[in-house]
Amino acid sequence: MKVQEYKEYVPPFDITEEISNLTIMIAETVGHLSAKIGDTPAPILRKQNRIRTIQSSLAIDYY
Q: How far apart are CA 31 and CA 6, in angstroms?
């Protein structure tokens, strides 16, 4: 079996401290936004839950 040799990848740009810092800032911002957006249920889901709650309350009151 022949082992294939791989050349070390060299990106077509230099990774500077500024690029690294900007990448970190973008990743943190995306993380914060994902956390905020992920916790909010969709309006349709809230409406369905509200209808279900009202129906349950009416069923309890009826019996």
A: 34
Nearest-5° Cα angle at 10, 6 to 13 = 165
26 burial via Cβ count (<10 Å: 0-12, 13-18, 19+):
exposed
**Each residue of 1-51: pLDDT tens digit?**
566 777 888 878 888 999 999 999 999 999 888 887 766 666 777 778 888
Cβ-based neighbours of 49, under 8 Å, separated by 6 or more: 41
DSSP 8-class letter at 39: H
Residue whose token pair is 């060299």: 10
